[in-house]
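Hi there,

I know you've been waiting on this one. I reran it after we fixed the sequence typo, so this is the corrected version. Both the input and the resulting structure follow.
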Amino acid sequence: RFSKNIKGSPGELRTTGSIAYELAMTACGILQYAVIGAPRMWDMLAGALAVQEAGGTIMIRLPGEKLQEPMGSLYPDYYQGSPTFKQLRNWIGPLIGGNRQLAPLIAQSIHRKSSMRSVVKMTWLNCKHIAAKRAKFKNGNTS
């Protein structure tokens, strides 16, 4: 979902079935930007390189991070040591490709949908909080 920063329609939804092809079309300027939900490294690296070589940028959210940042490396220096083959095989992360002005704007404007698990957890916590308030009120403790 897009925040209110993106007024009107964010554009037409297109899915070609190939992440590399969508990023290549973005690099050529046929698409203004591409939002890829959960690519594997081997699905996106060639297209990401094409976008960067064309003067664009790739925004990625690394594991454990909340914000998307311009991609420099799949495993930045602050991870300890070099990544193992298993870590590289298991790499997965949402990305946005586009020109240097648009991609960061899109990255700031996209909000993740809540997972069913987080919705259930928040509902449960809210119910627990309401039940505790009712118990205090029943016992005459309104503070």
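Quick highlight: The longest strand covers residues 33-36.

Best,
R. S.
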